[in-house]
Amino acid sequence: MSTSDDQGVRPATKLVQGGRRPEWTGDPRLGGGVVNPPVWRASTVLYDSIADMKARGHATHDKLYYGRRGTPTVWALADALTEMEPGAEGTLLYPSGVAAISAGLLALLAPGDHLLMVDSAYEPTRLFCNGMLKRYGVTTTYYDPLVGGSIAELIRPETKLIFLESPGSLTFEVQDIPAIATIARERGVLTMLDNTWATPLLFPALAHGIDVAMMSLTKYVGGHSDAMMGSLTATRTVWPRLRQAAYQLGQAVSPDDCALMLRGLRTLEVRMRRHGENALAVARWLAARPEVGRVLFPALAEDAGHAIWSRDFSGASGLFGFTLKGADDAARARFIDALQHFGIGFSWGGYESLVVPSDPGTIRTATAWTDADALVRLSIGLEDPADLIADIERGFGAMAE
Ligand SMILES: Cc1ncc(COP(=O)(O)O)c(C=O)c1O
């Protein structure tokens, strides 16, 4: 565990240095260390004596005890993520982003509680609320992502948590996170944010008043589309509850996957910069095309969320959407099938570009999605944007045929 501080070390430096504690990267008996924390695979941990076993049973999470409680490879990743969030007490790791969301909600809610969930949330987040949480007696109200300070009117005496996702990963509305977080704190309600789009590099969530910052590390932190993991990074007040629940639920991650995540994390700053630049180039080009209805990307000056986004975020990642003017399902499929530089596949945040059709109208309940044009989501990778643009132009040609 390391409490995040701000001793003048900037985020890009933290990404390089985070979690590389000497006791995890070296052994004094060998006279030196290595750059990366080695992969410590373990189920069984061995003790010197029964007294030693008893002592370590009461230790905090960064003492070897049993494989499920982690090894230095796991702690190094958790530590590095904690250091990226000023104001954080610690980070817990889960086998996927969805596992992090559901474990966080289970840890912070109890029967009879009320949850405010943003209507633009990732669909499996909603499924958990409508399924398991409901079964356990937690009521969910979905709210308009643009509610801002009016969230106050939705808070009930039994409201315990407000869940945010900004920008929404299908429809890209930008929430007024500071306004919501301020009201939540005043009313004694916790906040949890799905911060996968921005990562703490572009939006340090806890510094903006959020209590629990969630990420699917599967996306930008991993960055190479070959591993899955999720994280919750939390304030001092909330973190012990999350840790206790993670232990009780038996949540554990593989040290090999942690090593992949740590490798991704080291280059996050350069990749994010390029993802953002490439996405902006493609989005600007799309915005000027007659085939396009609208582009949903807060980094564009004309986007409805641009003012709040530029106030709160220090940059953009590479995920955004756009509508195909007058296109139906079949035309959208012709467009997508013709693309050669975009893989058709779920997930996002990897170095390679991806495309998926999306249909938010069938998912939302608090706010209607009224755009009749077919929606497409792009995850812009690290290719040359000129090639991506040429590819999309080819797609438009195929769509018209
Ligand atoms: C916004 C968002 N949150 C969470 C998740 C879940 O992450 P994972 O796929 O690692 O379970 C996803 C996955 O697509 C996502 O898009």
From TrEMBL:
Associated pathway: Amino-acid biosynthesis; L-methionine biosynthesis via de novo pathway; L-homocysteine from L-cystathionine: step 1/1
Cofactor: pyridoxal 5'-phosphate
Keywords (A to Z) from UniProt: Lyase, Pyridoxal phosphate
Region feature (Disordered): 1-32
Keyword Lyase applies: yes
InterPro entries on file: Cys/Met-Metab_PyrdxlP-dep_enz (IPR000277), Cys_b_lyase_bac (IPR006233), Cys_met_metab_PP (IPR054542), PyrdxlP-dep_Trfase (IPR015424), PyrdxlP-dep_Trfase_major (IPR015421), PyrdxlP-dep_Trfase_small (IPR015422)
Gene Ontology annotations of biological process type: L-cysteine catabolic process to pyruvate; transsulfuration
Species of provenance: Sphingopyxis flava
Keyword Chloroplast: no
Homology family: Belongs to the trans-sulfuration enzymes family.
GO molecular function terms attached to this record: cysteine-S-conjugate beta-lyase activity; pyridoxal phosphate binding
PROSITE patterns: CYS_MET_METAB_PP (PS00868)
Name of this chain's protein: Cystathionine beta-lyase
Catalyzed reactions: an S-substituted L-cysteine + H2O = a thiol + pyruvate + NH4(+); L,L-cystathionine + H2O = L-homocysteine + pyruvate + NH4(+)
Residues bearing the modification N6-(pyridoxal phosphate)lysine: 219
Top-level taxon of origin: Bacteria
